[in-house]
User: Fold these one by one.
Assistant:
Number 1:
Amino acid sequence: MFHRSQRLLLRPPWPEDSAQVFSAIADEGVVRNLARAPWPYSCEDAREFVSRPFDPRFPRFLIARADDSALVGCIGINPEGREIELGYWIARDHWGQGYATEAGSAVIEIARMLGHRRIVASHFLDNPASGAVLRKLGFAPVGRIRPRYSRGRGEQALAAEYALELAGEVESDMRAA
């Protein structure tokens, strides 16, 4: 599955992307904000990530700039218990340029087309920039802050939880038409 937005190309990761993924994510400042990525992040971790089987119900994408194919980060939706969770990371060189919001909008559109009715997300409290991205994407705080394990930190840290209802938006759009 591919998606083209104004500035970005979202595409599946391929095995030949492992070196580029490694160089983009092997930054403790990036990995410490993630729940599932380990620190230190190794070349083997990147090879394993790009070799995972693709599930069309839960796509994950490399985020590349459309003009020069530079790797910006990664984004996707994953099953998390009974929920569908949005996760993403942006390489440090690309922070503050709106790429997470642009890629997030695209993935929300894809999730809606796939029939998902609700998406959840969270951010560690010491990463308020991610919370700002989630709010720009329309996620609302659910009023819960809880400890969440971060493999990158090797410990739990407090995370704020958010949710985005997709089903009501589609149903409202259909009634308005």
Number 2:
Amino acid sequence: MPESDRGMPEGADLGLARGTDFLHLDELLTPQERELRDGVRRWCDEAVVPAAQEWWEAARYPAEMLPGYAATRVAGASIEGYGCAGVSALADGVMCAELARGDGSIATFNAVHSGLAMTSVHLLGSEEQRQRWLPGMARVETVGAVALTEPTHGSDVVSMETRARRDGDHWVLDGAKRWIGNGSVADLVVVWARDDDGDVGGFVVEAPQELDGWDAQVIDGKISNRGVWQAHIRLDGVRVPADHRLAEARTFADTNRVLARSRQAVAWEAIGHAIAAYEGALTYALRREQFGRPLAKNQLVQDDLARMVTLITSMQLMCTRMSQLQDQGRCTIEHAAMAKLHTTTAAREVVATARDMLGGNGILLDHHVARHFADLEATYTYEGSRTVQSLLVGRAVTGTSAFR
């Protein structure tokens, strides 16, 4: 018997962990949505997971994965029309979780391309702008990014300094952006800036890498999501046609409409990381023999596994209700904030427990848990840190803002 299989109980089925659907929430999806979800899962299992270790360790952007990603139809999945799948917000979220279960870098690419860039165009663009840009983005022929965060404005991005001034039939952009996912490889970047009237707008920059005044440098030295590239971007007189300003992007409240949607996707991502870590820990506990018996036979290990799957189930329940509210047009930025606050915090406990359960093997990429342990740190912070989400919820329950 191979060493890796020693201690496996007779008849044990590792597939029981897959999906971690303890309360049968899968039944809420339509047959078509389950088919799409299963397609994402299959692609991740067959193409992403076997290769993720290599690009994570090398900090390499896996451009060769784009055709497979496009084929899953997860890009813009909940958008109706424009070549998108048009599924429910719940199905979209479950698909995002499956991507994260496969690899955090792929999930983050999707969060940027679909959750931020496509959502910006869909929510805030005119019908002509949607028709112009969304179909190519749905086919992933056009890779999208959103440039919002600045070097000195992260959580207080409302204080953004990037400026857009009108010059004839163009807007001219000046400033700097940081931590811009896909920023060095994108074909289309929505740059957020203040105009001369102080209004905040989203300006679509096409083929940015070819433009004068655009400089995007990849940020290296990361310990999370090493297979997706974030960029530090400098804009020095970048010229954008006047009709590239998103028609409905006029205030920071419009920006928040995008963030409310993208934070929902990030909340689901945390579930995917937690499920992957739980699956890895359960598999290891069933196979790993210590003191003459599998780890899974020990009470303390079963207590940890029970705690992990309970946390995952609570995360799924919260995100499911959040997505139902989204489909009803009732999900607010505070709902999304609470979901991200809970899922990223709970997932942090799950992946830490899984890493500990694997002992010394828990720090090796070979077992995948270490990768999710590291990648979740980015999920925990981006799209608003835990404390920012907490203050959004606090504002909702007290009626008083603690931001200023």
Number 3:
Amino acid sequence: MSYEPPTPPSSLPTDLVNTLNEYTPERLHDVATYAEELAEHKEREARLQEEGDRDKVEERPDDLPDDVPAKATITIKEINDNRYYYWQWRDGDKIRSQYKGPVTPDE
């Protein structure tokens, strides 16, 4: 790791960079975790919206529970350094999730 401070991306607004430079390491870790989760959420919403816009009906997977709609997709969430599969789908304005199982290392 370098002893020099990192160079911020040019796409970040100066006021945001200045604010982040004032934060403690603990708060920066919180911001980084939140930013990563927010980015994943927005990507997931965009993907679900795109998939919802498709008119084709896809075949229902064999391992899909009865209470999960066929349009659901599988996503991976990391919780306490463990990775888990979740079914996710759009229900009106909300994103719904249902636990599927752990991600095994050999997959």
Number 4:
Amino acid sequence: MKLFYFLNLIFIIAFISEIKSIQEIDSTFEPIRDTRFLVFTRFNPTIGQVVDLTNMNTVINSNYDVNRPTRFIIHGQFGSDQSELNILVTAAYLRSSDVNVIVVDWSVGADTINYVAARNRVRPVGAVVATFIDNLHAANLIDFSRIVIVSHSLGGHVGGFVGKNVRRGRINTIFGLNPAGPLFDVNNPADRLDSTDAEYVEVIHTESGTFGIGTPIGHANFYINGGTNQPGCFTNTCDHNRSFELFAESLNSNQLLGRQCSNIDEMNRNECNGPVHSLGGEPTNAQINLRGIFRLATASSSPFGLGPPV
């Protein structure tokens, strides 16, 4: 099954390579009009309150509280505010901490089988989210030091463009959950998620062969079971989505622990002998300025954490 997905992706990329430009944005998607923001708190944990990018009164009149930290969640291709990513991570955050969760819904642009079109919308959506954050800050409704962005797949790069485009401060933490690989050049950090996009960037690699980037592009890079072929998974999609399942678990568990590796080759050989650190979590590893490459083994089903590695 995984071989089928891989061969299919090779065909798609070969076709895409004939396209002269990937810069056009389909006129059916208007980033400012079609990007939605939904606020979830412990007062409304399952039904989001839609707030307006330009009208801060809609934020003030919601359950959003300026005294709480704020966590943004950004989905990838085929995602929406109802995606499993948003449901799992929102619930995990509100169980662990009293925070504002803001779900970014760009499904009008992401819910398409046309990967090129969805990929082209990453940069403008990031710019819209950055504008929203700057507007919140201008209205004294947010503190940059208390912002965390959790972003999956194509959304991982949306998170990067949020960090690149904010003007009134610097994002504290961005989590890239198996950031998308196809059509993102690892040698061009200006066009993808990069460690320079926030004070701290942590990347969780669960499917580095087809859908995700395998290069360590964050300050801290956790390779789960070597970065691909997750136990209990039989498709690349399952491997890909395991990243947000693990992140959600990390918010209420300290059992997802990886061992630091000297380099990527040591990680690939499973010969890491460095210190042990946990991935994800609340608060984030920004507080300890974590750096490096880590390999982490998991169980095949939830709970995934196995505790300290042997």
